[in-house]
Amino acid sequence: MLNIIMIAYTLYVAIKIYISFFEIDFIKKAMKQKAVVLSEANYQEAGRYKIEMQKMSVVSSLYDLLLFFAWITFGLKVLSSAISIENDILYSVVFVNAFIALNYLLGLAFDIYQTFDIDKRYGFSTIDVKTYVSDQVKGAVVFLLFGSAIIWLISWIIATFESWWVYGFSAIFVIVLLINVIYPFYMMLFNKFEPLKNEELKTSIESLLQKAGLKSSGVFTIDASKRDKRLNAFFGGLGKSKRVVLFDTLIEKLNSSELLAVLGHELGHFKHKDIIKNIFSSGVMLFVMFGFFGNLPMDLFTDLGFEYSAAMVIILFMLLSPILSFFMMPLMGMMSRYNEYRADEYGSECESKEALGSALVKLASENKSFPLSHPLSIFFYHTHPELIQRLEKLGVDVRAQN
């Protein structure tokens, strides 16, 4: 069984690398053609950025493969031998936390390289070392507190119930819903939230919310620019905690009409109940995963040199779930891309097709998003259609911008 797992993981990484090489070749050829959507300079820069990110993806995928083989051949045994705790559930919490911490440290170089090298060179990252370290420490503390509680809960469920995966899925699904509710408050650890000061824009946004039937706890801005210059906005939270959050970078770059069109797009997801659909779809994926890991053959644990335990089940879940999610994501992606077109339609009705089209072009230009992708990359990774397809659907001119 272990041999099958090793082959499956190798195949998974090989497919990812294969797609990246296809994407790199596709972009290089597209960059030699006449620019579309973006200005020639922005088109070329977006292409170079995407190629660089794809190359890093290839390296990180190979690195992940090496780490995977290191863990299953000797790493897990070495880590286990370093932990002497008799209580099974406490042992599970310490073992899993140590595994996560080591994986985090072993992969930190990639995040540092992207943040302080690639993203700095392309004009995205504005974060300083002090803020970066502070963010990492805060995130680690939050995970240690809440993550440990979740690991303890799942370990107890595995040790207590024969069909533990059913109860484990239910517990995690509820936790996922709770995380959505408290997410805006988590963000406050890293960003400063302020009520939107532009009263005219605030009134227009509240009118959009009322029209869509969405009750919000307020419209806020966050100081995203102290870390990154990318443009974004989101609806955070669920139920009464839901709030509209605008990045200060977005307010700076988009005019009011464009901003309302973008928010109209997001409201389109709410209007069409896409949020509920996404939660349901994620729940189905999670259920499939728990069903798979709840019925692993015992000889897999024997091949790894371990007895069946909550700690090893959780570790295998973390090691192997990327394979399952990778092959389930295309279906999720197809549903999401369909929903994006419908949200675009609603957003254009809130303002105009021209306003939404202009906003999408500005977002792509500022975020250096290359407007084209290889079909394989779209199939496996994209939750949004190609920008050029979205603009054509809106009837917007896709010729290069001046």
Strand order of the largest sheet: 1-2-4-3
The number of strands is: 4
Report the mean per-residue pLDDT as an integer: 92
Give me the number of helical elements.
14
How does the overall form come out from the CA principal axes?
globular
Question: What's the gyration radius in Å?
Answer: 23 Å
Helices, strands, pairings?
Layout lengths: L1 H30 L8 H42 L6 H34 L7 H32 L3 H24 L5 E3 L3 H14 L6 E4 L10 E4 L6 E5 H6 L2 H16 L2 H20 L4 H7 L5 H41 L2 H14 L8 H7 L5 H8 L8
Parallel strand pairs: 2-4
Antiparallel strand pairs: 1-2, 3-4
Salient structural properties:
mainly alpha, 14 helices
Walk me through this protein's architecture.
It contains 14 helices and 4 strands. The protein is mainly alpha-helical. Strands 1-2-4-3 form a 4-stranded mixed β-sheet.
Summarize the structure.
With 402 residues, this protein is mainly alpha-helical. The protein is 73% helix and 4% strand.
